[in-house]
């Protein structure tokens, strides 16, 4: 079975930047995010041995979510410019590894990954897909052929989530994650959900009704706590809008070609020169043969 590994470039970039001290080259260039990014990349190359690989990035500017909901991610503190300044370096080295980069104005890296998964499973249904990310939003993408390689803390503590692991962790199926966020919301993305409904209540409702749609379809037929029912009815529109905001797109307009993602030999001399320029001696020793 062939394996496609997809990397959420922005999630990995942010995780690396915040996990590592402010490493600088002899020339004074800040490179902690670059170092962390490629430390993880070399780790997954060794562990996962992909047949295909690609990296997805966000693009500067508003996404469709920002345009439809001005408060989307509004409470997040804007990362420092020195984080963004490291992105060109990362993209330069990713390209030197012969790994294609996918991005699209108006869409997040999550949406690009969701679209690539959909296109791959439509055309090559037997392909196993592993998503490397630090973002738990990606759990909704898990299915029989898709797993999430999650960075839990820093860049060394990792775990792989398949359907069974998600059920064990949340008591929910992957497809219920968006319904869970529709009810509970997501403070990190400033998605409101239904006020007063926390994780426990959201899970209980979804275990009972299976989906947000079915909950509202049967809300007048089933016995539900009067106060909870009133809250659900009052914020019905907000619940479905929150579900929509939390849903990763699978139809972003990108031109994806799996053949171009085939893992092939890279110019090791070029990578060594790039790493030497950044004083990444320890990473040079970890390069695959």
TrEMBL record:
The record's listing under SUPFAM superfamilies reads: 5' to 3' exonuclease, C-terminal subdomain (SSF47807), PIN domain-like (SSF88723)
Coiled-coil spans in chain:
none
A GO biological process of this protein is: DNA replication, Okazaki fragment processing
Pfam families in alphabetical order: 5_3_exonuc, 5_3_exonuc_N
What is the top-level taxon of the source organism? Bacteria
**Known Gene3D superfamilies for this protein?**
5' to 3' exonuclease, C-terminal subdomain (1.10.150.20), 5'-nuclease (3.40.50.1010)
Sorted alphabetically, which keywords does the UniProt record give?
A: DNA-binding, Exonuclease, Hydrolase, Nuclease
InterPro entries (UniProt xref): 5-3_exonucl_a-hlix_arch_N (IPR020046), 5-3_exonuclease (IPR002421), 5-3_exonuclease_C_sf (IPR036279), DNA_polI_H3TH (IPR020045), FEN (IPR038969), HhH2 (IPR008918), PIN-like_dom_sf (IPR029060)
Instruction: List each copy of the 5'-3' exonuclease domain by range.
Output: 1-264
Q: Which GO terms label this protein's molecular function in UniProt?
A: 5'-3' exonuclease activity; 5'-flap endonuclease activity; DNA binding
UniProt keyword annotation of DNA-binding present: yes
Q: What is this protein called?
A: 5'-3' exonuclease domain-containing protein
């Amino acid at each position: 079975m062939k394996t496609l590994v997809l990397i959420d470039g922005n999630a990995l970039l942010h995780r690396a930047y915040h996990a590592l001290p402010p490493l600088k080259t002899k020339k004074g260039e800040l490179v902690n995010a670059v170092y962390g990014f490629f430390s993880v990349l070399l780790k997954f190359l060794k562990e996962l041995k992909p047949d295909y690989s690609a990296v997805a990035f966000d693009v500067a500017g508003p996404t469709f979510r920002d345009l439809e909901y001005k408060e989307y991610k509004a409470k997040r503190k804007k990362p420092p410019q020195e984080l963004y300044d490291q992105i060109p370096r990362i993209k330069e080295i990713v390209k030197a590894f012969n790994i294609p980069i996918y991005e699209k104005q108006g869409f997040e890296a999550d949406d690009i990954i969701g679209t690539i998964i959909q296109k791959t499973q439509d055309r090559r249904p037997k392909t196993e897909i592993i998503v490397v990310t630090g973002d738990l939003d990606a759990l909704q993408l898990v299915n029989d052929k898709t797993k999430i390689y999650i960075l839990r803390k820093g860049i060394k503590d990792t775990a792989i989530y398949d359907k069974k692991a998600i059920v064990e962790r949340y008591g929910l199926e992957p497809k219920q994650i968006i319904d869970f966020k529709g009810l509970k919301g997501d403070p990190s993305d400033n998605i409101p959900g239904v006020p007063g409904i926390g994780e426990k209540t959201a899970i209980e409702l979804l275990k009972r009704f299976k989906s947000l749609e079915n909950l509202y379809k049967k809300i007048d037929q089933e016995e539900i706590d009067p106060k909870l029912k009133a809250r659900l009815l009052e914020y019905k529109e907000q619940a479905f809008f929150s579900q929509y905001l939390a849903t990763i797109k699978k139809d972003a307009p990108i031109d994806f070609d799996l053949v171009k993602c085939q893992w092939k030999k890279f110019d090791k001399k070029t990578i060594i020169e790039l790493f030497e320029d950044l004083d990444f001696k320890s990473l040079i020793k970890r390069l695959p043969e």
